[in-house]
Amino acid sequence: MARNEQLHASGVLILLAGAFLPITDFFITNVALPSIDASLHASTASLQLVIAGYGVAYAALLVLGGRLGDRFGRHRLFQGALVGFVLASLACGLAPDVEALIAARIVQGATAALLIPQVLATFHHTLEGERKARALALYGATSGIAAVVGQLVGGLLVSADIAGTSWRPIFLVNVPIGLVVLLFAARLVPATRSPHPVGIDLPGTVLFAATLVAVLVPLTEGHSLAWPWWTWLLFAVAVLLGAVTYWVEKRAELRGETPLLPPSLLRLPSMSRGLLMVLAFSIGFGAFMFVFALTMQDGLHADALHSGLAILPMAVLFLAGSVLAPRLISRFGRAAMSAGAVVQLAGLAWLVGLLVTQWPYVGLWGLAGPLALVGAGQSMLFAGLFRSVLADVPAHLGGIGSGVLITLQQSGLALGVATLGTLYVSLAPHGVPDAFADVEYAQMGIVALLAVGVAALPRFTRAAAAVPVTEG
User: Fold this and answer.
1) What pLDDT digit, counting tens, does each position of 34-54 carry?
2) According to the 3-state scheme, what is the secondary structure of 282-305?
């Protein structure tokens, strides 16, 4: 396969650094919400929108971001979106009221959606064989680590209360980091675009975005507002919009066009099976991060710093496992992913047992062991899932495939918070440890299904990984 320019290891790291910031920002506000409430006197619904506004804009525009990168150049869009993300982060950090913060968060989510797909698409277009597999695994690791580090760094920055700025540094820290990434990206990341650029599918884009908004808004806001009638109406509208979206996209493909969500692409074995598993994994992961933070702060009355530190063992083992994951998956194939799921399952069971039997005398050191197992298991499963989804995707559709993948991941995170998170909030008044256990039983069921379901994914062997993907 012809390549315009190879991406070197330093370029891979810069792209991963660029992806790290937007992913972190989805989770970093979890530990800062009490401080935002105290500073801006925000209502519960407004605080929900601080998270939901970012998540909905992020998920709704991800596929469009991949399409724009394919057409206008991934390097150019990566840089432009990163500038927008830095400016939106600055606006978040300087927001005078909660309405301004919500508006800036929506812009932040939109620019993140344009930035993130360029990372995977650049990997897909400029790397081959083991180097591509390693880069995809590192992206999966970055996604997971960013989620954990978001809560850890958020806790540190909020507790530090730098110059009396309270929660604001969780957004302002993006500015210097983003500028450094922008400077190095200009030198180290090659300019690529699809050799077969296609037009923007405006009807598909609008319908898909509307469907996501109709699903995620009521799921995120419904519980805090006591499920008013309009939330149920939006669910019904979402079903109708989903059906119309599929019909429009199918007809566009039959006319020889390349729609935003090509049904033929979604029917590829790696996409149809892998995306379903990524969605399930992300639902469990998003719920765990949200519920664990609430359990630490509202249940054990830990401050933001100690709530963030509690998750550190999980982050360390996730990072270590992610470094080993590409080699282990190449050697042992899907068995390595199943083993990772079993390790994660054991960690979750151990964690639930500790919290239920020792509550409220639970120390951070006591949680380190089970959280380490959870992180190690997640890293193996996550790396394999990200590698599998794009296995069959032609290089010229890399941007679209990447956008679909991250959209499902992001939607899963939001669904996890909205569904299992809502379950926790409703049960917590009757007992925090039991509420945590009930949510984690659901997650353990998801992990158990994934341990078995990976058998349906493509085989991973060293020989298979070395076969280059051809553009067609």
Assistant:
1) 789 889 988 766 777 788 788
2) HHHHHHHHHHHHHHHHHHCCCCHH
